[in-house]
Amino acid sequence: MNEKLPLTPDEIAVIIKGLDPIDWTQMELLAKLPPARRIIPPMLAQEFSMAALRGTFRKRFPDLSTSEINMKVLAYLTPVRMESK
């Protein structure tokens, strides 16, 4: 099994450089929400991305049923590695 090495400061700087600046007002608003309400924005973002992916697969594979499209979305979003025997 491969052990992951910690990132170096230079690698972290490269990652951070590509990110947008922190919106402190948004962070303060989210911090004031109770945990049950704080989880809603990421869940909505996930729902949006899954719907977009589902629409893409529907255009790419018009002959598949809704269940088959949903399975393709699930397979795309959950990488499963099967060990060969």
What does it look like?
It is a single chain. This protein has one domain (9-77). Helices cover 65% and strands 0% of the residues. The protein contains 5 helices and no strands. 0% of the residues are buried. It is extended and about 45 Å long. The longest helix is centred in the middle third of the chain and has 21 residues, at 40-60.
Q: Which descriptors apply to this entry?
A:
85 residues; mainly alpha; 5 helices; 0% strand
Unreliable runs: none
Morphology call: extended
Structural class: mainly alpha
Q: How many domains, as an integer? A: 1
Measured between the Cα atoms of the first and last residue, the distance is: 17 Å
The total count of helices amounts to 5
Helix content: 55-70%
Q: Roughly what fraction of the amino acids lie in strands?
A: under 5%
Chain-wise SSE layout:
Layout: H1 9-17, H2 24-32, H3 35-38, H4 40-60, H5 66-77
